[in-house]
Amino acid sequence: QCPEQVILEDRCFVWHYTILDGTGGxxxxxxSHIGAWVGIFTHSxxxxxxxxxxHYLDVPQNQRVGFRTAPVRIGRFVGIGAGSLIMPGVxxxxxxxxxxxxxxxxxxxxxxxxxGNPARVIRNMRRFDQRMLREHPELLPWYxxxxxxxxxxxxxxxxxxxxxxxxxx
Length: 169
What we know:
Layout: E1 6-8, E2 13-14, E3 19-20, E4 26-28, E5 33-34, E6 39-40, E7 43-44, H1 46-52, E8 68-69, E9 72-74, E10 79-80, E11 85-86, E12 91-92, E13 97-98, E14 103-104, E15 112-115, E16 120-124, H2 126-135, H3 140-149, H4 155-162
Parallel strand pairs: 1-4, 2-5, 3-6, 4-9, 5-10, 6-11, 9-12, 10-13, 11-14, 13-15
Antiparallel strand pairs: 7-8, 15-16
């Protein structure tokens, strides 16, 4: 866990007017891009505020009934579209893409496009990766490098899932 801290790995990009809440712990993996007006929340206090009313601030945060914290983990090379909200306790897998304006309330697997309210998996992005790598084979070593670093499948292994072989010459 990463309580009360924000960890940004190398090469992250966070656009304007984005909220990064570290109350419950937040990790953002290498190379991830967070769009403008995104809110990433690791706590929820709405229940606690309604219970305590005007006395909410009189009670220390760690003693408030109904105050919930949960870490958020965003994998490596994830893209989160503008205006999205990521709720407490969510994990977003490596290489995932979140469509603009989405509300992510549950875990998102690696290498998928997810979107909507609530966010749901729309498609597996491996087929898109394969098409791009066929058009630009010079990028295959870089793609495979980050896949192997994360313990993931190589592009050649992923091709067997999509039925679209990538030829590395």
